[in-house]
Amino acid sequence: NRNVSKPQAEPITGRPVNIVSLSFCDVDLPVVLKIVEQEAIKLPDLILLPETFRGEKTDTLDSMTIQSLTTLAKKYATYLVCPIYREHNGQRYNSTIVIERNGSIGCIYDKMYPYWEEFNLKPITQVGKRAVTYDTDFGKIGLATCFDVNFPHLWDELANQGAELVLWSSAYSAGTSLQAHALNHHYYIVTSTLARDCLAYDITGELIHASQDPEINIARLT
Q: What is the per-residue pLDDT across 119-169, written as a single tens digit (0 to 9) for each?
């Protein structure tokens, strides 16, 4: 018998990921763009905006809202996560759009569980069909929106798809419901809300960040 030394496996390592969560309500687009640029110039990996931050109006992918944000993403080489009401084929979707560092559209998640008031809008809000994860250059992110927090199947599916970080944009805070999802599935969760607060949970469900501002909450997380 010969002693054969086995090559050592390379350790699995990550790197710090710098995230900015911007939480606000009823802020005009020029002001939003100014704040996004002020944060993007610091070169974070990702900037997260709150649910339907443009209000009930709908935007297409070639609207001024999206084009302005894609320009900033490319200029500062950062991911931008942009939740809006999206118009597609004459229908309304509550969509979270991931803009790549190069300004291209990486993926779109359509909210699977709209709140009932969203069905009163004209046109009504369509129901998303699938959970969405996306491979960034720092890891796999999952996307969820507001009322989605109450439906464990979606959070199970994000875990099954390998999500390491779930970004939850919302109109409200949710709190311990998110803590349970982080604990059960061992991924990080970071929020951005119209309630002007940000919560972050680690993979053990521990609350690692909580902040709120009466006007615009800027949370810088690593």
A: 999 999 999 999 999 999 999 999 999 999 999 999 999 999 999 999 999
Q: Which backbone phi and psi does 69 adopt, to 5 degrees?
A: -75, -35
Q: How far is CA 181 from CA 76, 105, 157, 200, in A?
A: 32, 28, 12, 12
Per residue in 30-83, pLDDT tens?
999 999 999 999 999 999 999 999 999 999 999 999 999 999 999 999 999 999
The Cα 158–Cα 217 span in angstroms is: 27
Q: Please give the angle made by the CA atoms of 33, 38 and 135, to the nearest 5 degrees.
A: 75
Strands (E), the chain: 19-23, 46-48, 58-59, 79-88, 91-99, 105-110, 125-126, 133-135, 140-145, 165-170, 188-193, 197-201, 207-212, 217-221
Q: 189 with 201: CB under 8 angstroms? A: yes
User: Per the omega criterion (within 30 degrees of 0), is the bond before 123 cis?
Assistant: yes
